[in-house]
């Protein structure tokens, strides 16, 4: 019967004995990366089975990052972070779902009161400037990404990031 036991990691078509010397020797680099990931991010797992599952997810995410970074046509680089042991769905459910219990009062009223055309005209700048071609990242116009942890205040982080960038652009 094909059911995982405490000594196996499930990998699509087969099971690997996690403590097998051959497996350890063939995957020493990945195992070392995973243990450094655990140490760096203070990860704790409830059981050996959970650790094995997280290792498998970590391997899959590391593979995706490597595939992306090795693509000559990619416009940016990826790296593993504290979420590397989560699947996309786990990450989405835990960090990308709205947790607000109270609707913002008067938010529709505030949006209706703004005159966007006046704001845009005020800050538009030179008409001959090619905004699409200018990369502000290369000119200190974009601040580094910040980790909001689990606070659910993405609106605040994005607002502050926008203000920081506007300040940096106007200052330079």
- Give me the count of strands: 2
Helix content: 40-55%
What is the annotated CATH architecture of the domain at 1-97? Orthogonal Bundle
The average pLDDT score comes to 76
Across the major sheet, the strand order is 1-2
Key terms for this structure?
single chain; 172 residues; mainly alpha; Helix Hairpins; 7 helices; 2 strands; disordered N terminus
Descriptive account of the structure:
- This protein has 172 residues and is mainly α.
- It has a domain at 1-97: Helix Hairpins.
- The protein is 48% helix and 5% strand.
- The chain has a two-stranded antiparallel ribbon with strand order 1-2.
- A hairpin with a 2-residue loop joins strand 1 (8-11) and strand 2.
- The longest helix is centred in the middle third of the chain and has 23 residues, at 48-70.
- It starts with 7 loop residues before the first strand and ends with a helix.
